[in-house]
Design goal:
With about 280 residues, this protein is mainly beta. The protein has 3 domains: about 70 residues, Immunoglobulin-like (Sandwich); about 90 residues, Sandwich (Immunoglobulin-like); about 90 residues, Immunoglobulin-like, CATH 2.60.40.10. It is about 0% helix and about 50% strand. It has no helices and 25 strands. Strands 9, 11, 12, 14, 15 and 16 form a 6-stranded mixed β-sheet that branches. The mean pLDDT is about 95.
């Protein structure tokens, strides 16, 4: 406990001489004593360090230089003062945070009249109630480099402590939105390929990158044909449909991670005309 303490008492009167005081302060825990002599006022502002959660007794002796008289005693408890309240800065409440990237948590400083303050940061996954924490921080920022799960809501808060008492910040929420599968393209068939009517057509495409499992659906249109083929996680399909001569068909694929969908480019191919025999 380091705050200034003001001790005040009533004046002792003397009909003959001026009165001065000696102030005494006793630590009841270890028996140590402090004193201040030659005081001429009835107030003492004490700037010294007191032990937290410790009882102290104080009294005065008044003297006119010849005789002295002692006051009664009074006992008080010196208690720790907790760190001051503080506010979170970022991520702000309701903010969307980029998935799979470092996130910096920042908050205002908490001051303490008795000593230094350390912080602990806590982040809770609202979906599965798991928690990540970092303890004993002396700075007012914390960088989390691993990244957080996509399509998930989180809450976070900070606790400041001086080693004896603690104060917690408010709790804020942020979300990590889902990231759609990355762009991808056909590798087969080649654009504007010419294919015989009775041939199988092989469709191949690149991988749509995503942290989740990606499933693909192939769509082929042209003439009266409009066919959907779910290929699951496979990126290849070999099809011989009811191709019609001299018709140009188009194919594209969409990839989904269960939340968002990304479409490929479109590839066109033509079924050859068969000459009369």
């Amino acid at each position: 406990a380091a705050d200034q303490i003001s001790f005040t008492w009533t004046a002792a009167t003397d009909p003959d001489d001026a009165v001065s005081y000696t102030f005494y302060l006793l630590n009841e825990e270890d028996g140590s004593e402090q004193s201040f002599a030659g005081l001429n006022s009835t107030t003492l502002v004490f700037d010294g360090e007191l032990e937290n959660n410790t009882s102290y007794t104080w009294w005065l002796v008044a003297t006119d230089g010849f005789d002295e008289v002692s006051s009664d005693t009074a006992t008080f408890l010196a208690v720790n003062q907790p760190p001051n309240a503080f506010a979170l800065i970022s991520p702000a409440n309701g903010e969307e945070v980029t998935a799979n990237s470092a996130i910096t948590f920042a908050w205002g400083a908490s001051t303490d009249p008795d000593g230094s303050v350390t912080y602990s940061v806590h982040v809770r996954n609202q979906a599965d109630n798991t928690q990540r924490s970092s303890e004993s921080l002396t700075d007012t920022t914390w960088v989390y480099n691993t990244g957080f799960d996509e399509n998930t809501a989180f809450t976070w808060w900070v606790v400041a402590t001086d080693g004896l008492d603690s104060v917690s910040s408010d709790t804020l929420a942020f979300t990590v939105p889902n990231v759609a599968p990355s762009a991808f393209s056909f590798t087969d068939p080649s654009p504007l390929s010419s294919i015989n009517q009775n041939e199988f057509v092989t469709f191949r495409w690149g991988r749509a990158e995503d942290n989740a499992t990606v499933n693909y659906t192939l769509r082929i249109t042209g003439g009266t044909l409009d066919t959907l083929l779910a290929t699951g996680t496979s990126r290849t399909a070999r099809e011989r449909l009811d191709w019609v001569q001299n018709v140009t068909y188009q194919a594209y694929v969409w990839a989904t991670d269960g939340v968002d969908t990304t479409a490929s480019d479109t590839v066109a191919f033509t079924i050859n005309n068969v000459a009369p025999t």
